[in-house]
Amino acid sequence: METRRDIFQAIADPTRRAIISLIALQAMTPNALAEHFNSSRQAVSKHIKILTECELVKQEQQGREIYYLLDIEKMKEIDKWLNQFRKIWETQFNQLDKVLSTLKKQRK
Predict the structure, then answer these.
(1) Per DSSP, which regions of the chain are E strands?
(2) Residues contacting residue 8 through CB under 8 Å, at least 6 positions apart
(3) Whole-number Å distance between alpha carbons of 69 and 25
(4) Can you provide one Gene Ontology molecular function annotated for this UniProt record (predicted)?
(5) What is the pTM of this model?
């Protein structure tokens, strides 16, 4: 399947992020997912379709049911992008910790 949408465009929507959170815990059918939202099954299916097109979600046929599950490898792409910012804020927090520790020692 060719990726049609940008992965960050897909996770920009709060409903799609909620779907990702749900299927991160366990594979779910569209009906089971729809029970968690105040929208129609068709609306949830459209969100699942977008997530599937971005390859964030995989589907598995089990009997007559289709289960959706998270593609962890694709989530690593998001993590890789965020990691560059994580390093920046961790460095800044570490510097703040050193300043606070120095100030604390000076007061004693």
Answers:
(1) 57-62, 65-70
(2) 78, 81
(3) 9
(4) DNA binding
(5) 0.76
Instruction: Report residue 23 as tokens.
Output: 């299927």
103's tokens: 């100030």
Fold of 7-106: Arc Repressor Mutant, subunit A (1.10.10)
11 — phi, psi (to 5°)? Answer: -85, 0
The pLDDT tens digits for 16-51 are: 999 999 999 999 999 999 999 998 899 999 999 999
Task: Region of 62 please: left (phi>0), alpha (psi -120 to 50) or beta.
Answer: beta
9-43: buried (b, 16+ CB within 10 Å) or exposed (e) per residue? ebbeeebbeebbebbeeebbbbebbbeeeeeeeee
Q: Which residue has the tokens 């920009």?
A: 12
